[in-house]
Design a protein that fits this description.
Shape: globular
Number of helices: 1
Number of strands: 6
Radius of gyration: 15 Å
Strand order of the largest sheet: 1-2-3-4-5-6
Strand content: over 45%
C-alpha cells in the first residue's frame, strides 16, 4: 500500500524533475528531451553536501532520472523512469527512493502497471 507521504514525495519529485527539464532540456516535435548531468556542492550547518541530477535516455521515448543527495549524516537516492509522448505527455513507469540517514535505511518504490 502506498502511503500519502510517499505519494506526496513522488509528486514533488516528478514536479521538480519536469521543472528542471523545462529549464535544461528542449522538447522537439518528437518530444525528445535533452540528456543532462548536474552536480552541486554546498554547505549545510557547516557540513559539506553534494547533490547530483541526471537525465538519461533509455530508448526512443523512455527516460530515467536520478537524483542523489549526500551528506555526512547520510544520503538520499531517487530514480524515476517515465515516457514522454507527443504534445509533452508524461507517463511515469516507476519510482524508487532509498534513504540512509543516521544509520537507518529505508526504501520505497512505486511501479505503475498501466496495462492492468
Amino acid at each position: 500500500m502506498i502511503t500519502i507521504g510517499t505519494r506526496i514525495k513522488l509528486l514533488t519529485f516528478l514536479t521538480i524533475s519536469l521543472l528542471l527539464n523545462s529549464l535544461f532540456a528542449e522538447v522537439s516535435q518528437s518530444s525528445t528531451l535533452k540528456e543532462y548531468e548536474i552536480e552541486y556542492e554546498a554547505k549545510f550547518n557547516g557540513l559539506d553536501v553534494t547533490a547530483s541530477y541526471e537525465l538519461s535516455r533509455i530508448n526512443e521515448n523512455v527516460y530515467q532520472e536520478k537524483t542523489s543527495i549526500k551528506h555526512l549524516l547520510g544520503e538520499i537516492n531517487e530514480k524515476a523512469e517515465f515516457a514522454v509522448f507527443r504534445e509533452s505527455q508524461v507517463k511515469p513507469y516507476s519510482y524508487i527512493m532509498e534513504r540512509a540517514l543516521f544509520g537507518s535505511k529505508r526504501q520505497e518504490s512505486i511501479d505503475f502497471l498501466w496495462d492492468q
